[in-house]
Amino acid sequence: MNKAETYQYLTRHNIPYEITEHKAVFNMEELKEVELPYPEWDGKNLFVRDDKKRNYYLITVKGNKRVDLKVFRKQHGLRALSFASEEDLSAIMKLTPGSVTPLGLLNDNRHQVHFYLDAEFAGNKIGVHPNDNTATLWMQADDLMNLIRQHGNEGEFIEI
Fold it and tell me: How far out from the chain centre does Cα 118 lie?
């Protein structure tokens, strides 16, 4: 699902959203140079896997937070975690580095990625890429979580 298909998908599912088009950004530092209407609700995404390459996770937190993967794995009873490869990102979510987004889970046809969403987003907006890093899509985080679950991926709000 590309950017246009993502917008169509959300419209078909009656999910309200706003779009902020911008230059391509590849990390949170570059995003600081972009004028966003809701910068406090922008999401940062970490696509990780366990040490056996059996389980994949997408962790989405507020942009100003850091995630200690050792602490995270212990809190959630997971095996050792590391960042997934570019090849895994492409094969599973059909994304490229810099465009990682929870909406990429809609491309995960095998439903193999577990989604963890920072509880601070619950009941609020979230800004995520629409499967392309040249825009930020703003929607309700609860709508996002419901879409991911309806698609068949496991997802939960967690304290980070």
Answer: 11
Q: How far is the C-alpha of 76 from the C-alpha of 80, rounded, in Å?
A: 11
Q: Residue 130, CB half-sphere, CA atoms under 13 Å: how many?
A: 22
How far lies 8's CA from each of 1, 17, 59, in Å? 10, 11, 25
pLDDT of residue 63: 86
Question: Residues 47, 98: contact at Cβ < 8 Å?
Answer: no
What is the side-by-side order of every strand in the sheet holding 56-62? 81-83, 43-50, 56-62, 113-118, 155-158
Q: Residues 57-97: pLDDT tens digits?
A: 999 999 889 999 999 999 999 999 999 999 999 999 999 98
